[in-house]
């Protein structure tokens, strides 16, 4: 199946990055969110990130303008009805994702591929609540989407080969690299990355090091581009906690127990960069 028009549900940091890379690769993109403010903010972010690519001579000004012209926004899920591929990039909550699919499905063409950018939730379970488990897949982009090379492709138990191969081709068209992961909690990247971040929070909690010394140790001692606490702030502490809970519940092993300090920060509303406060203060 040829994919030409792509619908994205959720205009947050993942949704706007996904819209950016699809539009640059020549796809028509419709972005949906529940607030006009979120849509306007997404277009402003995409414009700023495309401008940055122009100023660094990664793309021409003409390419930026063509990409922006390919993006439309809407508050109505029905407007995704004529798309060939839908990527759900809403909040990392299963009830929210299920509710979106329930409202969206009556409007979709039968052949439309439905995907979720979930970073941890079971694809098989999400798919089972839809009318097309064979055309449902996990399509997991990394943040910041325009920069990160990897896309995880996760097949649910019922996903058919044609859907998988169509998405492999899409990833190739985006100029990115696909890694296939089996459908187990948090797949590959977050199965490995989140316990490391959680361990960094334990290291802070137990007083082994300060925020600065933990991050500097991993940047200068292990050549990570960001320290784990800085990265947690970048991803969002609520997302980190949600993924640790999925690992803990799904694999029933205490080694995935979320650090109480991570829970406390989330309860305080200190979610990282997006709330101006996390392990660092951005105010
Ligand atoms: N859009 C477009 N370009 C962007 C961008 C964006 N949003 N953000 C950064 N860039 C570009 C910059 O323009 C710059 O380009 P050049 O190389 O051409 O100069 C390049 O990326 C590097 O950016 P900066 O110079 O501003 O800053 P940096 O060198 O500190 O890099 C970073 C920033 C790319 C974010 C780097 O710190 C990094 O790789 N951090 C780790 C990110 C990471 O681990 N992401 C995965 C998170 S896990 C995940 O996403 C999965 C999940 O489910 C939670």
From TrEMBL:
Residue stretches making up the 3-hydroxyacyl-CoA dehydrogenase NAD binding domain: 5-183
Native organism: Celeribacter halophilus
Protein name: 3-hydroxybutyryl-CoA dehydrogenase
Residues where NAD(+) binds: 10-15, 33, 92, 97, 119, 143, 274
Family that this chain belongs to: Belongs to the 3-hydroxyacyl-CoA dehydrogenase family.
UniProt-recorded Gene Ontology molecular function terms: 3-hydroxybutyryl-CoA dehydrogenase activity; NAD+ binding
Location of the 3-hydroxyacyl-CoA dehydrogenase C-terminal domain: 187-282
Pfam hit, one: 3HCDH
EC number: 1.1.1.157
Site, Important for catalytic activity: residue positions: 140
Keywords from the named record: NAD, Oxidoreductase
The keyword Kinase appears for this protein: no
Xref: PANTHER family: 3-HYDROXYACYL-COA DEHYDROGENASE FAMILY PROTEIN, 3-HYDROXYBUTYRYL-COA DEHYDROGENASE
Superkingdom per UniProt: Bacteria
Entry's Gene Ontology BP terms: fatty acid metabolic process
């Amino acid at each position: 199946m040829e994919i030409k028009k792509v619908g994205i549900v959720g205009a947050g940091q993942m949704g706007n990055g996904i819209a950016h890379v699809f539009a640059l690769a020549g796809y028509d993109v419709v972005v949906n969110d529940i607030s006009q403010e979120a849509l306007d903010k997404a277009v402003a972010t995409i414009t700023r990130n495309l401008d940055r690519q122009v100023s660094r001579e990664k793309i021409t000004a003409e390419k930026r303008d063509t990409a922006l012209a390919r993006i439309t926004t809407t508050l109505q899920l029905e407007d995704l009805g004529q798309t060939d591929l839908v990527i759900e990039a809403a909040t990392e909550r299963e009830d929210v994702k299920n509710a979106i699919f329930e409202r969206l499905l009556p409007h979709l063409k039968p052949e439309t591929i439905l995907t979720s950018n979930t970073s941890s939730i079971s694809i098989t379970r999400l798919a089972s609540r839809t009318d097309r488990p064979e055309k449902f897949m996990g399509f997991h982009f990394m943040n910041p989407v325009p920069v990160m090379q990897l896309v995880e492709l996760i097949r649910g138990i019922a996903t058919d080969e044609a859907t998988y191969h169509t998405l492999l081709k899409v990833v190739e068209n985006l100029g990115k690299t696909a890694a296939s992961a089996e459908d187990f909690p948090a797949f590959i990247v977050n199965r490995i990355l989140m316990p490391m971040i959680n361990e960094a929070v334990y290291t802070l909690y137990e007083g082994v090091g300060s925020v600065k010394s933990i991050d500097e140790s991993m940047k200068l001692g292990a050549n990570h581009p960001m320290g784990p606490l800085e990265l947690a702030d970048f991803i969002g502490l609520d997302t980190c906690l949600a993924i640790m809970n999925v690992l803990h519940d799904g694999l029933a092993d205490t080694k995935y127990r979320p650090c109480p300090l991570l829970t406390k920060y989330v309860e305080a509303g200190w979610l990282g960069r997006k709330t101006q406060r996390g392990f660092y203060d951005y105010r």
